[in-house]
Amino acid sequence: MSCRWCFAVQYALVLAAMAALALGLAAGTVAAQAGPAFRGDPQAVAEVTAALQKFSAARSWRSRMTSPEGTITTDFVAPDRFRMVLTQGNTTTEIFIIGRETWVREGGTCSKLASTIPVTNPKDLAEQTGADTITVTRGNPEMVDGTPTQTYTMAVERRGTTTRQKLHVATATGLLRRIEVQASQGTLLVDYFDFGAPITINPPC
Asked: Which of 14, 105, 115, 142 is 20 to 30 A removed from 148 (C-alpha atoms)?
C-alpha cells in the first residue's frame, strides 16, 4: 500500500509531541539532551510552556490541518489514540493509530498495516525531533474565528536550519487555538478545538 500520507501523519504527531516535550521540560523530567532549550523573553517562554502543558494534559481534542496538499482532521484520545481523515481532491483516507498499531480505511476497504509508522508515541517523537533551540517572542492579540488569542512567534532551530511557527493561545482558556508553520510545501495551518470532548477511537477492522 502506498504511504503517500506518511509525512502528514508524522507532522500531525510532531504537533502532539511539542506539548509532551514542553510538559517534560517544565517538570524537569526530560534530560537536557532529549529536547531543545527554550529561549527569549522569560514571560513569553513561561506563557507558551503553560499553554503546552495544558495541551499535553488534555484527555482529548480535535484538530484540522490545512496545507497546499490537502486537509487533515484529527481526533485524539490520550495517551496514544489518533484518528485522522486525509482529504486530497476527491480522495479521502482514514488512518487509525493506537499505540504502535496502524489501520487504513480507503475506498471501501480497511486493513491493518503489517509494519508500523515509526515512532507514534508523542513523547518518543519529541525526543527525536532534533531541535537545538526554540526562541519565543510575544506577539499581538489576534482573533481566530471569533476567539480572542494571544500570539507568539517560535523560531525553531535544528541543525543550522530555522523554521518559524506562530502560536495562537486562547486568552479565555490558555489552550492552543491555532499553529501556523512555514514549511517547504507552503504554510501549514492547524486549528485545535473540542478539548475534553467525549471521543472514542477503536480499531476499525
From this structure: 14
Q: Give this prediction's pTM.
A: 0.80
Give the pairing type, strands 37-40 and 133-144.
parallel
Amino acid at 118: P
For residue 19, the SS3 value is helix
Our measurement of the distance from residue 60's CA atom to the centroid of its chain's CA atoms, rounded to an integer in Å, reads 13
Find the helix packing angle between 42-57 and 6-27, rounded to 10°: 110
* Count of residues in the chain: 205
163-188 pLDDT, tens digit per residue, is: 888 999 999 999 999 988 877 767 78
Beta-carbon-side half-sphere exposure of residue 78 (alpha carbons within 13 Å): 14
